[in-house]
Each structure stands twice: as structure tokens, then as C-alpha cells.
Amino acid sequence: MKKALFSKVAGTLLCTAGLLAAAGASAQTTLTFDAAGNTTFGSLHATPGDFIDTYLFSVDTNASYASGTAVVGKTWIDSARLANYGITDITFFKVNADTSHTDLGTSFSTSAGIEFYPLDALMSGNYGFTVTGSTAIAGMGGSYAGNLNLAAPVPEPATYAMLLVGVGLLGFTARRKSNDKLG
Fold first, then answer.
1. Which of 101, 164, 168, 176 could lock 93 by a disulfide, CB 3.0 to 4.6 Å apart?
2. pTM for this prediction
3. CA-based end-to-end distance of the chain
4. What is the DSSP string of 53-103?
């Protein structure tokens, strides 16, 4: 009886360890934005290898523009600070009603740090992005962190001009109706 119980507990522990190890290769996190439209993301991979991490988020308003940056961790090795993680790609996607994903055009640049953004505005709905990378130093894990901002578009000056002309016409029409001399 004790042997059977021990083997079941050991089997459960091994299964749990296997699931945790598999989760290191690919993680999924839901992001929450603050009132200013900012959120942070990141991951620590304790074991060396390739990784794809998925981050999910929702957009409540129409026409939001997303923009993000990321940095990779550095480790002291032989009196030098070396990057311990390399990000090779970040891609945005839309989550469809059936939970499938549709990739969105994404700009990903490493020329002046890591910067990324979808090429088009995001309408209300569910979205996400994947971070693809790998540890850069043999035998060591790695880490990265970043931020993502959602911002509503700022109207063009011409939009404000049209608004003022429209309000002016409404005011003129209202004045005209209340003043018989204007016709």
C-alpha cells in the first residue's frame, strides 16, 4: 500500500516537473495596461535554448497605436558584461473569434535598441505578440524585459480646423434663426 502511494506521488511529481520544464520553452502571459496605456513584460529562462513567449492583451477603443521596446539581460563572465539573451523577432497578431491567430504586419528593429510596433492601428479586440529568441551564452539561461504602450491617435490640425468651421456654421445657423433681420 505504501509502495503504491509512493509511486503515485512520485509519478505526479515527475509529471509536474515535466510540465514546468516544457513551460520554459514557451510561455503565455496576459498583459494589463495602466491608465496611461502602458504595460511591462519580460521573461527569465533558467535553462539554455530557444524560446517563444506569447503575450496577450485587449484593446477597448478603436484605432489605438501600439509601440514597444525591449532590453536583454547582461551577465558578468570573465570580467565582461555580456548579453545573455538574444531576441530575433517580435510579431504582433490578432486573436480571432475561434481563438486562432492572424499575424499582423510588424516593424521589428534592433538598430538602436529593440523597437517594435504593428504597421497599422489596432481596432477594438484581442491581440498579442510573440517574442522569439534564445539564450546567447552556452550553458546559461537568459532574460529580457520590455514595455508596450497603446495610444489613441492625435487628430491632425486639419481635423481641428474642420471642427471649428462646423461649430461656427452651427452658431451662424442658430443666430440666423433667432434674428429676423438676417433672413
1. 101
2. 0.69
3. 102
4. EEEEEEE-SSSBEEEEEEEE-EEEETTEEEE-EEEEEEEEEEEPTTS-EEE
